[in-house]
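A quick aside before the break. I want you to see a complete sequence-to-structure record at least once, exactly as it would be stored in a machine-readable document. Don't worry about memorizing anything.
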Amino acid sequence: MKNVGLEKMLSKDQIRKEIGISASERFVNFYTPLHWHNFIELELILSGRGEQILNGQQTELTRGCLSVLRLTDFHQVDPKENLHLLNLMVDDNFLSEEMLGKLTASNTLFFKLNDEQTDTLEKLFRLCMAENKTPNPDLRYLKHIIICIFLKVLKLSPKSKGKSPADERPIQTALLYIHMHFRENPKLSDVAKIAHYNASHFSHTFHKELGTTYCDYLNMLKISYAKELLISTNLKISDICYECGFTSHSNFLRLFKEKIGLSPMQYRQKAIVKQNKE
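That is the input. The structure line, written in tokens, reads:
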């Protein structure tokens, strides 16, 4: 598959702003370059054949394949035969905190469904599509259907071992927001408001609960994401720096070496050598 620069798909270009979702049926016969979204996307393959790289892992796309892409996932799609799929895009504000927490705690969400599971999800997707096309969609009805879809997805996902950080701490709302939006460099004061704390109390509580400062935690998420991009893409180091949310290339290089013990280039080269041996 091709491997090119990472692109960002924006909700303002994809989703009906007034309701926070978009549902559509598509026939895809063109290559979609590596990208990520600032919304949650589900794609259910009904027919056709193709290849996908999701978070660095290559998978075959055939009938019954379901991909769930969160704000921290990245993928590219290369159709081999015309892919017929149903697509659902949901603004993360549309889902409950509990639902987002469960989605965030799961690993890569890619499933191969049997015919019964595929038919069930197809019906739910089409109910969303039909309501989404109306001039004044019923948000309560749409929300009910979408919750059903995500509950189906979570039943497919292996139960994660232990709890996510957001499940155990009183600042769970803030932690969830940080994990979803770390590339946007959320300010401490803004995240404190989400947790209903003032900035000083939030900073103290954050350090007490997690054993690290807000800034260090944010940088840790960025570095972890940089490691994924270094292994899974051929993006330039400078591009990875900005895709992860760093605003200074020199600061990125310094922090990466400080935390990982290798420069980004050394880390990538070491990963390539390891992959070639396997």
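Two observations worth writing down. The beta strands are 7-9, 21-28, 32-37, 40-54, 57-61, 65-69, 75-90, 109-112. The chain has two domains: 7-156, 165-277. We'll return to this after the break.
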